[in-house]
Input
Amino acid sequence: MRLEVGHIFIKDIQFGAESKIEDGVLYVSEEAVKEVVLEDEHIKSVKFDIARPGESVRITPVKDVIEPRVKVEGRGGIFPGVISKVDTVGEGKTYALKGMAVVTAGKIVGFQEGVIDMSGPAADYCPFSKTVNLCVVIEPQEGLETHVYEKAGRMAGLKVAAYLGEAGRNVEPDTLETFETKPIFEQAAMYPDLPKVGYIHMLQSQGLLHDTYYYGVDAKQFVPTFMYPTEIMDGAIVSGNCVAPCDKVTTYHHFHNPVIEDCYKHHGKDINFMGVILTNENVFLADKERHSDMVAKLAEWMGLDGVLI
Output
């Protein structure tokens, strides 16, 4: 699969009468995004704030962070199986709004964390202190069960990100990057003298507030499978984990998986990056053994010389 990612650099966000991008500024119609969020009857109210780098602002409790993107060429749409229909993504052309993020916030249940400081000593430890953030602060209807509210909050962020991504559909990107992974036999033949390396990508799948979604499917419900790395870069995986620090891999992180990005940098130079084996983090011993065996079988079938886990 061959994916081109166009980067549209956003230097500021401002509220305006219509949603559009002009001279690097994203103008957001507050009424339009409010309408998008309040389509869900489980959400009582929503408000929006803009947090810029260097401001004396703390965002908490953060649920998810999402980079707005739009599919402009090729099969499928953004967030397949969740926002768009279940079509395989990872090829064609996608535009990303760089330098900004959609941040969902709101208390869900029990002990909550997730802090973004836009200035001060803690800002150095969070990448999202350096992005211009549109904060989506949601309030649920009274008496909702926790899992219902969690889904409503998750969907609110993805809907807003998809809506804002559309503002970039007809904008000429500032830069364009190309990533490609061929079918397995073709890829192996391209660099026969380089070690064939795969990435074993484990998704959080340990229950409410600790889940991840693959083409809209809860990761607890699938067995290990092969993925083209470009599928992940194109929105096939979204976050549903939002409690403790070790369980907070945002949707933004899936778009910008550092292992995938580094493997592509080395691809064709000192490794032959063959692709991703997708699995999950299981709770029960039998599931751990089953999935470990399946991952090992896939690695052997792919003829890998090494894996990153």
The radius of gyration is 20 Å.
